[in-house]
Amino acid sequence: MIRIKLVTGDDEKASAEDNKDDVDNSLLKLKALTACRILSRDSTDLNESIENDHVDLMAQVIDSSSLRWSTEVKFEGKKVLSNCIQQSETVRAYCVQSDLLSKVFHLITSHKAYDEFERFDLRLMFLLTAKCEELRTVANQKLRAIEGLTTCLQNITRLQKDRKTVPSDEAVYMGELLKLLFNVTLAVDQADDKDKLVRLCTALDHAINLPFHSDADQQNVITNMIGLLTNMLDTKDPTLVIFPPNNTNNIDKLLNFLMKILESMDSNDGNLLGLKQEISPVLMVLWGVSKLHPHVRKYLKSVILPPLTTEDLKRKPEEGGSPKARLVKLFTNADTQISMMAAEFIFVLCKHNVGKMVKQTGYGHAAGLLARRGLMMGGRGDEEFSSDSEGEQEEEEGYKKEAHKVNPITNVVEEERPSPFEGMSDEQKEYEAMKMVNMINDLMKTGIIKPATVGPDGKPVEVEHVLQLQEGLNIPPTSDDQSDSD
Known about the structure:
The longest helix is centred in the middle third of the chain and has 21 residues, at 272-292. The protein has a two-stranded antiparallel ribbon with strand order 1-2. The protein has a two-stranded antiparallel ribbon with strand order 3-4. Helix 13 crosses helix 16 (272-292). The protein has helices at residues 9-18, 25-39, 46-49, 52-61, 71-87, 89-97, 100-109, 116-131, 134-141, 145-159, 168-185, 194-208, 215-229, 236-242, 249-266, 272-292, 294-304, 323-330, 336-349, 354-361, 363-373, 392-402, 426-445, and strands at 406-407, 412-413, 452-454, 460-462. Among the domains are: 243-415, no CATH class; 426-470, no CATH class. By secondary structure, the chain is an all-alpha fold.
């Protein structure tokens, strides 16, 4: 194992006295740190090679107030420390005991350039709070990190007053800052720290409406802001600052962000990882704020689930490029988390009314959600929603004209087809029926299919024999179509 030691100031003096050669010590330190950075990428034997003194030395190197080290040396020291935090449990354990987090946070609060050199401080604190859960509590309670980082975000937004667009470096810095805020707010108590979160959301509202240099910069900021908002869906006041009544600009930005991702996925089939990383957070935020704020839910419903017309019923709910079609298409996504979240979001827009859900998506698409919630017999979910007086008649008008022709499974008006039993005698019909029963029974025995009936709790119950499917066919009418005031 190669060990590389950086000489301290005292050692440097002694070395200079013993060696009269003109050595560029700054260049030597830089090369030594570069070697350390490369070696620290490999975690093999790293725990055994690093001592606490080495971490303390790196903390001295990155100190912005020290004149002993050049900027290049400090930057390389940050990279070494970053690798060590990622790769070494020993380093992380020592970081919890030491005051490294406090030193890094102090560097962040003094940032003014917002360049790559300063962004690495954000990366260091992000790694510390991501890898060491204890440090999130320290950051909140001891360092008051939410207040300090919110001030940093406010300082950046104030710089943009006299600028046409946000420089790309500052946009990238904002993205990294929002990532760090995500970690810090994981340990926050949303009720006790409500005032802090309201102040943070006020800064977020200003940030999301800045004129960015490029779409990529704006997408980066919005992506990380969405991640941060997933930690604030338990209380109303903070998110109400970003999504106020009578102003839909910010909710439009999130919805447009989601639609752009779904459009890009059309030409990138099979990218499930990209789907989960990009779509899950924004679906969670849209779902959460729709539950919290009636005005948001009502607006999103008007955009995603507009009144049904006869034209809508000529094509399946998942066909086309409308927001509704793209979201319904997610119901059958191979990633169960994405399919569940998309269905739950639409269900919230329907105010947990099963009849409205089936009317908008078809029973086939809604069946998975209804089975999970025990609502296969109809009814409503447990959540309570506010009552809105307008829009009911308009929504029902176009639908009622063709309602008797709609296939409830696909939610589309299908062309009339001749009956397959036409021209058959009763004996032939009975023969074909028993043939189908035997085929289904064979498939059940091999485990290929598992037929089920709806149990008393509204959830599917697997049957042991195909003839059990005949039981309970006289299902009483449900109250799904009861009047809803949305």
